[in-house]
## 1
Amino acid sequence: MLQKEKEIGLRAVAAAMAMTAAVQKEMTGGDTLTKSDRSPVTIADFATQALICKALGLHFPGVPIVGEEDSQAIRQPENREIFTKIVRYLKLYDPALDEKMICDLIDMGGDEPDGTFWTLDPIDGTKGFLRGEQFAIALALVQDGQVRLGILGCPNLPVGSGGTLFWAIRGKGSWKIPARGGIAAAIHASSLNEPPLMKFVESYESSHSDKDTQLDISRRLGISSPPEQMDSQVKYGIVASGLADIYLRIPNPATPDYREKIWDHAAGSLIVEEAGGRVSDIDGKKLDFSAGKTLHHNRGILATNGAVHDRVLEIIAEIAANK
Ligand code: AMP
Ligand code: MG
């Protein structure tokens, strides 16, 4: 089940990984736009969304795609230069593409979540991408509110390797493969039981979570080194493969109404769960992918190796009770 979805998805994400790695190396300051929510978007975000939508549209016509980007900004005359670069990168993959076709491909990702749909974050961790650090290409298939297939392309993991592709199909475990090809290997969350020995990861960007509280929690667990900071869903890949044990994302007090986007968590959360780990929000509730484009019914994220999950939830509740 879902074999064709997995094969086509992996191939499309691997192609996008190679393209984005090239873009990341060649980026200049002018290759970035600022969206209305003040977040950055680059030529790689648009080009990846076009490339992956093209593959999905060809092989799975009629299945909605809920992607993060749309073509509106690159159609503005002042963004001509950026658009030209996007066209140039995409023509390397398909010389027949023209500007109109590229905008249409990007806008294939403009569907609403409903029934069975794909969700795509073409560049998750754009800020990490711009710093030359970690980012991920995240694609997931959601069916009736449940993530069934998750694919995570991590071009800089490990650094300098050509990248790692992770995937999971619900009920079939989690896997990784070197992006340049090789043998697929099952991955497993760590079996550590002693919190003080555990590795704790969090977002690099301070505004995306509550780092003071996260540090407090890691200390209460007895962990002496500070949390390791890393952009994007690469954190889920790290927990799923046993390289870290706890990924915590407590809402930043400055943005209490922020709701997590489905494309920021669908692929990664399934990969951790299928690797034997546990994922919930910070109240211990399962992530609810049936509430539209955001995880409207959830607050924050906790992904762990499973063993330490309840202990972290307890500490979060204790802190909340004493506030
Ligand atoms: P990370 O690198 O794990 O922080 O994940 C990057 C994602 O954080 C981006 O794709 C954004 O969608 C998301 N993000 C942006 N603003 C916030 C916020 N205030 N709180 C939580 N996440 C955010
Ligand atoms: Mg994202």
## 2
Amino acid sequence: MYKVLPDLAPPQTALERLPEEWSAQLEAWGEPKYRGKQVFEWLHKKGVLDPAAMTNLPKSLRERLAQDLVIDAAIQVSSVHDSGDGTKKLLLATHDGRTSEAVLIPMPSAERGDLYAAEDPSGDDEAEAAPAVPVTECISTQIGCAMGCVFCASGLAGLKRHMSAGEIVGQVIQGRAHTAAGHRLRNVVFMGMGEPLHNYAAVARALTLLTHPEGIALSKRRVTISTSGLVPEIERLGRDFGGEVQLAVSLHAPTDAQRSEIMPINKKHPLPELMEALRRYPLPKRRRITIEYTLIRGFNASLSDAKKLAELLRGLPSKVNLIPLNRVEGNPLEPPSWDDVDAFQAVLRERGVANFVRRRKGDDIAAACGQLALRNEPKRIRVALPQLRD
Ligand code: SAH
Ligand code: SF4
């Protein structure tokens, strides 16, 4: 039997119930217990949200579900934007009139080997006659973000609210429904709008739902949580999921002083404290932590920065994901030249630090990292951009 985490907060909406919670609910309605699993499978495995279409349930139960389910709290897709490179951005509408975004990124085999193709140490991919193109979905966890990193569009309007577990899982259900024929949603990265670990309770329930064997059944190592470095919640995630969930950490600077200039969270949890937490994360054998490093021209992209980064990561099982900065409207920060990116990479390689450059995806529809933003919301005025060198 799948173990429910002991400290999971109670479900708020229908989409958030686990099979055993459905069974308890349905038993209270006088239904047999096994119907709980059936309803859960309809919602999560089959992605059917309309009770009228749940054909193996008696009509009376379908009618009751239609009345009692608060499925309207689940997220809706209000429009879909296709990028020339195959990336699709889903604009999401919430029940209370908020908007958010999720992105579907197909990864044809020639382009794999980076973050989106999760490591597969067990090599247990099914052999398929014509293998489906794997798709990674990048999902949001908050409406806006409170963290205020200076290079990112998501936090410009501040935090409006947390997203519920149902809204988080709803993005994956919708993502699967919008996945093209011949494609298959394989990886989910919590790298859209918001800081996942700032919304820990909802994210923990969403992880439990997404990886539940009777539901979407994503493998934990194919789900990546990216964090700006909330140390207590990194520890909690490690404890609650035994280190199985892939962890990505937005480092972005090789020294404590530099990091504080661009990421306010670093003043609360300074770099040495974060590195300590990463070294303690209960990583399974042969797995590595992803270190995200956004390259910003004149700030953190010099050869000396690369050497300091290699030094900082010494002994930590990690792979560095270099992200040349995606431009954000109204923000003067720029990416380095491709020659500088190559030179930075070469220094890491010489020092034995595994790394890859994340190719720009969905730039033309503002779906790239750090470009997901709240539309039509007043933006905060930025106070302090980092000191740039020539
Ligand atoms: N809030 C989480 C996850 C979402 S952001 C976090 O910060 O980790 C996903 C990644 O994109 C993070 O590494 C983030 O720092 C990075 N990012 C943000 N703005 C960016 C930009 N303008 N260009 C490139 N990467 C950016
Ligand atoms: Fe929030 Fe992540 Fe953007 Fe920082 S980089 S503002 S933590 S979404």
